[in-house]
Amino acid sequence: MPFESWAAFTVASMILLVIPGPTVLLVVSYALGQGWRTALPMAVGVALGDFTAMTLSMLGIGALLAASATVFTAVKMLGAAYLVYLGVKLFRAGGTLKAEPRSSGASTAKMVAHAWLVTALNPKAITFFVAFLPQFIDRHATFLPQMAILEATFVTLAFANAFGYALVATRARTAVRSERAIRAFNRAGGTLLVGAGIATVAMRSGS
After folding, report:
1. 8 Å CB contact between 170 and 37
2. Terminus-to-terminus CA distance in the chain, angstroms?
3. 142 secondary structure, DSSP code
4. Alpha-carbon gap, residue 168 to 161, rounded angstroms
5. Rg of the Cα atoms in the chain
6. Calpha distance 185→192 (Å, rounded)
7. Average of pLDDT values for 77-87?
8. Residue 142 backbone dihedrals phi, psi, to 5 degrees
9. Distance of CA 145 to CAs 2, 85, 104, 153, 162, Å?
10. How far is it, in rounded angstroms, from Cα 159 to Cα 163?
11. How far is CA 84 from CA 78, 100, 104, 190, 194, in A?
């Protein structure tokens, strides 16, 4: 895998991960309720969940690679459209933070399991990975090494992102609950997603 492709994937993943979604809301919810002790178990659960969802998605992408170059290209184009759709939806989401109910005494094992379930068993996550990952895969190169590099990169970033969100939430509870801050965050993230989708279409049209 060329360094440029890996770097682009890393930057795109960082942007996507920082945008609040079901997993981030869960992490923030636990952190608001129980403080910094939730950071490590929640981050581990999120990393395991993303590894599960990403592996399932990558296996499906591998099947597409083997089946048809035309189908694979079509999936890439649909993926770009999906990024734009997610961006518009996030931009219009407003400033509501609908976190999970906060338990005051969840065990470490329960926190890991909860984070894993929410992350791994979210159908939208698997669909998203199928749409997102092909943008960075060279179909002329060996698939498994690319799969390993992308998974290791994303899972590491997912762990760091969840851990960071948990720590920030414990120290900035007022900001996390601020409707204005969440609205601004959603609009910025939505704009970035739409831009990523348009850029992907432009790259495909020019290639």
Report:
1. no
2. 18
3. -
4. 10
5. 17
6. 11
7. 70
8. -65, 130
9. 12, 30, 43, 12, 26
10. 6
11. 10, 27, 38, 8, 4
